[in-house]
Exocyst complex component 5 (Vireo altiloquus), 697 residues
Amino acid sequence: EPFVADEYIERLAWRTPGGGSRGGEAFDPKRLLEEFVNHIQELQVMDERIQRKVEKLEQQCQKEAKEFAKKVQELQKSNQVAFQHFQELDEHISYVATKVCHLGDQLEGVNTPRQRAVEAQKLMKYFNEFLDGELKSDVFTNSEKIKEAADIIQKLHLIAQELPFDSFCCYPLSSPGKYHDLECQLIQEFTSAQRRGEISRMREVAAVLLHFKGYSHCVDVYIKQCQEGAFLRNDVFEDAAILCQRVNKQVGEIFSNPETVLAKLIQNIFEVKLQSYVKDQLEEHRKSDAEQYLKNLYDLYTRTTNLSSKLMEFNLGTDKQTFLSKLIKAIFISYLENYIEVEIGYLKSRSAMILQRYYDSKNHQKRSIGTGGIQDLKERLRQRTNLPLGPSIDTHGETFLSQEVVVNLLQETKQAFERCHRLSDPSDLPKNAFRIFSMLVEFLCTEHIDYALETGLAGIPSSDSKNANLYFLDVVHQANTIFHLFDKQFNDHLMPLISSSPKLSECLQKKKDIIEQMEVKLDMGIDTLNCMIGQMKHILAAEQKKTDFKPEDENNVLIQYTNACVKVCGYVRKQVEKIRNSMDGKNVDTVLMELGVRFHRLIYEHLQQYSYSCMGGMLAICDVAEYRKCAKDFKIALVLQLFDTLHALCNLLVVAPDNLKQVCSGEQLANLDKNILHSFVQLRVDYRSARLARHFS
């Protein structure tokens, strides 16, 4: 432990008798001083002893250091001597190695021609056997030495190509036959080894055949045998992927050019198996069932491209993407050339059938209803003439819009867009997508939504019809919902196909024209408001009595507002709710403002048809208050302001004659024309009195 002087002194004092309070002993400074002096002397003695020991060790250390330094110097001298000897030895080894290399070169120069001469002698011996027609050498008769025989035959065959035919006429008769026989034997051996699964033997035979003309036939045999039993299931694409995966692991252990062999296997699968399978699947429905044909074409092309993506993982050479694309194109070229014509033809007939089936279910015969361009529609809207737009049609409450029909049409178009994306050439994709979009516009927007709007417009009742049912708002509601679905498909499925092409602006313009045309027709349907006002007029005419505002017994009026007011308010609330459910966005506020203004005008004109007693005026104020409460449901500031002003005008029917001028100069009536104020004051039964006329003049 580290030495701490304070602790050491404390322990010394504690051990000394009288040095502390231990055991109740009294403190004795003399004794403690004596103990300290003795201890200091002991420490001094100990210090001297240790110091002598340290000096002795230092002297010994210095002595050993000198001896060690002397030994190191001796070792350095020995090392220098050894290094010099090593350099001499290295130089000597280099000299010997140079001599050996020179000698080796000389020996090689002598041995190489000798080996060639020996090989040439052997080849001449074998050549003589072929000339004699008798093959006696063991290499030709022993089946286990087929590899050596193949090497000899290959060399002799090359030599024979350079010899004159006239001088060695027997050789061409014998050697080519033996060459072919041996080649067949090697291929047969390779085939047998493949069936036995002997990869090493296959590799040896393939290496021998590499220099023979029949090497490609060996590869063909390998490819053929690989496919035996590989396509037993119904899924030829999955079988092909598994086969290529298995062969990819094996082919590198057998052939020196595995990428070429694997590419040839894939080419064979595409050109034989897949092409045959695709043809069988498509030709069956090509002329008889367009729907099944398109589904099969899309499915087969998708599965083929997916298989191609899996095969991209393998080493097939430098440009495997182009290689696989050409294989796919070769299979589907005859089907993809006229794909879009088949697609459009099917989509047209399928859409027409969906619509016709719907109208047949409604026992409805489609008829020609007023048509025209946008400008013609706008002109008819501006003039508010020629409504209904065609012959009067009783729709019996049918909107002729069906979400089921719309979903079916959109689903067919969605599938068409998906097929178009997959099957169209990239350069033709925007053009083909536009054609499909045009079909959707024709059958969904024109033949279904537009026809329903035209029919709804033609079915709008006249303003003086009694108990008229305003089904056009239901048409508006459903058309609005359907168009949202149409717009969603436009953004989700069409836009990705045309976003980077000139067809984008064309599609957007076509969509804009459709929206504008439909909005014009929806605006023309605003005349349903005339029917609503007509219904209100009919209610007021039937329910409002002259005695309501001029009761015979002024003191016995028990009602808070008239029955006509109750029924009109109930009717208006239903129509407001219907409008909110049928429309969205700013259209709701626009239509409600128009209805609210007409509603106010109707009540204003209606109130001016009666004379009002004092109690009748109070009842009129209650009616207007109820109308104003109904106007709050519109949530339109202008409409509420109009009814506030009307309520203030009704106060003129009950105010005391002396207060008329004060009321007329109030905040709500001060800006009104004096004739309007006068017209309301004239409705009072006491207007003829000189006092009232004098106060108002």
User: Anything to note?
Assistant: The CA atoms of residues 228 and 430 lie 44 Å apart. The first helix runs from residue 5 to 15. The chain is about 75% helix and 0% strand.
